[in-house]
Amino acid sequence: MVSQTMARSEGEFKGKREKPGLCRPVIRAKRQVDRGANSTNRIFWLSLASVRRWAIPPVRASSRPDFHTMDACSIACLKSMDTASIIRGMNLHGIDLNLLVAFDALNAERNVTRAGARIGRTQPAMSAALSRLRVLLGDELFVRGPSGLQPTPRAVELAEPISLALRDIQRTLQFTQDFAPSASTMTFSLGVSGHAGSVVLPRLLSILTERAPTVDLRVQDYAGRDDAIALLDSGEVDLTVGIPPSATGRILRARLFQERFVCILRKEHPATLRPLDTESFLALTHILVAPENEGLDVAEAALAMKGMRRRIALTVPQMSAAPQLVASSDMIATVVEGVVAGSGYADRLSVLEFPLRLNPVPFVLSWHRRNDAHPAQRWLRNCMLAAFPNVWLPSENVCADLAQQYY
């Protein structure tokens, strides 16, 4: 192709020798060819010979060359210069995926017509694609042989990487309703809030070990209820488990489990010798659990509704810290029942009924709407929901904004 372009350029220059100085660039290009310069340099000198002298008229910086005023040779040379820059930098914006598909078909069939039939393109379209590939990659790629097209060393070098890349793209874009957990190697990400992690993770790990042994799980903790929304929005996690976040249409949720509030005191505390009434409860020194640093919990909200106050001597951000602190002091704490069982201090604590009626704490499974139809995530959600029987105790509204006080 380069030799043909050079021949055309020399032929056209022969007819224009009356213009002074026009032949010198071509002579220089010819010398480069004679010395065995590479194809990129040959294209460059021919392009310089044509374009600098007469292909491109003087234009302002903001203008583009007028291809209508240029002959075929000039256009070819100008395009060759652009191609040379692509070859050097290989700008991916200039690559059409269809060209790679055509390359893969040509490499498989070694025949332009059969390659076109393989991917549903006509023989002229395949020939055009091959021409574009040759220009783009600076190589003949496929040459005629006794038994069809034969790949050049450059084509052999490119064949496997291009084939693998196309397969990866196809797998990425192919959406299927099937998910094979036993063969999957994907990684799920889960956000958990405090106590919810100690309840959910043992059951979830048991499910994954049995049904999806090569699936990995990444767990991330969060504190505030609406931190779950931020994690799901950003895609940092696939699912979250915790108290219900603020209602928003893009975040979907399902009820997972719930736990009731109880009061805990150290064993042998004098207050454990009789039923815990409201008066006794208020007379004790309290530990307040406030994960969101609100200085308020469900018990405090219920007491405030009745105009009652208690002395809070210590405020902690994590409910899991309360059992140990209560076991070594005379203070009382209000926690969800499951925290006691998983604390390791159950044998040193007395569990008492809270003196007022409180709603149980709901823990929900939340996910982003964009992931609702994803087969793998749908499988994981169904497994988690099946692991927690949907026993949802009836509850009463102790205070008007109780739903916002759950922690």
Order of helices and strands: HHHHHHHEEHEHEHEEEHEHEHEHEEH
CATH topology label of the largest domain: D-Maltodextrin-Binding Protein, domain 2
The coarse overall form would be: rod-shaped
| Classification by helices and strands | alpha/beta
Write up this protein.
This protein has 407 residues and is α/β, with parallel strands linked by helices. The protein has four domains: 90 residues, no CATH class; 79 residues, Orthogonal Bundle (Arc Repressor Mutant, subunit A), CATH 1.10.10; 115 residues, D-Maltodextrin-Binding Protein, domain 2; 97 residues, D-Maltodextrin-Binding Protein, domain 2 (3-Layer(aba) Sandwich). It contains 15 helices and twelve strands. The strands form three sheets. The chain has a five-stranded mixed sheet. The protein is rod-shaped, with a radius of gyration of 37 Å. The chain starts with a helix and ends in a 20-residue tail after the last helix. 27% of the residues are buried.
Give the gist of this structure:
This protein is an alpha/beta fold and 407 residues long. The chain has 15 helices and twelve strands.
